[in-house]
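> forwarded from #structure-qc
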């Protein structure tokens, strides 16, 4: 593990004013690749998102130029053809919008969160015939009808099931916010593994690779351990990178915040602890990749593609985090170089 700073710069009243993020690009040495269809798909997906979500400024700029879902998809699915990449980019753009619908744009409403879940899962089950007036459901119908053109039955069911887990966890998080409840570390970790959205994104690996893994593969402990390790790295690294933005919105749905509240860490100590968990996740990923069993030559080829896709998903979000303005605005490249994050002021409640 690369060394991380252990000091926290504070102001005169002993409140931290900045923190230092880990050296992710030394710790995670997987190659960073970008899909060659990135530009054309990004433009097409931006047009789709603006139209389907009825975006107006400043949201047009936010969800296309700042969040860059097309670039995100291109970082995580570097070998996808243009058709499959567009489905992934549309899904990720929808996901960004859903995050804000559930967390920022609406006052906390648990019933509304469950209503979105019922609508979207119904759209997945029958994207052609299901009818709804919700933008969220209409967007699901659009991208998932295209998904089903090539997605295998196992892959399709895995996507729907893991998205249902995401909606359930999102509703639980809304409920926590309404009650002012902060999970303990263990409960937060379990919730975050569903709320990260990684599980559905891993189903998209099968979709873009045009494979449909057998049940005996996806239920194997080694495959499940690889998925969990990748999910954990994405989740904990994201909690570090997003902490500044989230603390400015008074959000405590973040492992850094949970560690500070529940276990008494100071800010830098919590960040460093998350960094250790990230490196442990990378070690778990490599240890399990080394003991992959064989299911026969043809299946093994598909498994190799899937595991490479998990690897792409470990490094892809890192690449996107510093190429978009999601977390660090115009200073993203500076933060990537010097790793110093200056805390934003908290927004008025």
């Amino acid at each position: 593990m690369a060394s991380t700073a252990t000091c926290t710069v504070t102001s005169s009243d002993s409140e931290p004013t900045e923190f230092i993020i880990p050296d992710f690009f030394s710790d995670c040495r997987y190659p960073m690749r970008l899909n060659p269809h990135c530009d054309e798909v990004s433009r097409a997906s931006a047009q789709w998102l603006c139209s389907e979500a009825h975006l107006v400024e400043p949201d047009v700029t936010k969800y296309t130029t700042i969040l860059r879902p097309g670039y995100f998809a291109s970082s995580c699915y570097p070998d996808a053809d243009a058709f499959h990449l567009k489905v992934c980019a549309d899904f990720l753009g929808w996901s960004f919008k859903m995050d804000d619908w559930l967390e920022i744009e609406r006052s906390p409403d648990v019933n509304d969160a469950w209503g979105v879940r019922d609508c979207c899962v119904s759209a997945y089950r029958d994207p052609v015939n299901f009818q709804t007036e919700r933008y969220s459901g209409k967007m699901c119908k659009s991208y998932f009808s295209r998904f089903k053109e090539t997605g295998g039955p196992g892959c399709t069911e895995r996507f729907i099931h893991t998205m249902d887990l995401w909606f359930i966890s999102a509703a639980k998080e809304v409920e926590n916010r309404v009650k002012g409840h902060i999970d303990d570390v263990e409960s937060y970790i379990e919730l975050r593994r569903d709320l990260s959205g990684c599980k559905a994104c891993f189903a998209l690996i099968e979709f873009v690779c045009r494979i449909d893994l057998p049940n005996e593969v996806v239920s194997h402990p080694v495959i499940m351990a690889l998925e969990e390790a990748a999910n954990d790295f994405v989740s904990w690294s994201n909690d570090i990178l997003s902490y500044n933005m989230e603390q400015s919105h008074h959000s405590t749905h973040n492992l850094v915040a949970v560690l500070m509240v529940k276990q008494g860490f100071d800010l830098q100590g919590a960040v460093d602890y998350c960094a250790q968990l990230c490196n442990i996740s990378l070690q778990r990923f490599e240890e399990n990749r080394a003991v992959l069993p064989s299911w026969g030559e043809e299946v093994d080829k598909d498994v190799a593609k899937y595991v490479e896709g998990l690897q792409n998903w470990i490094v892809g979000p890192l690449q996107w985090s510093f190429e978009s303005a999601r977390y660090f605005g115009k200073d993203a490249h500076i933060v990537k170089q010097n790793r110093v994050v200056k805390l934003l002021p908290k927004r008025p409640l």
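QC bot note: The chain is about 70% helix and 0% strand. Residues 227 and 260 are 27 Å apart (CA to CA).
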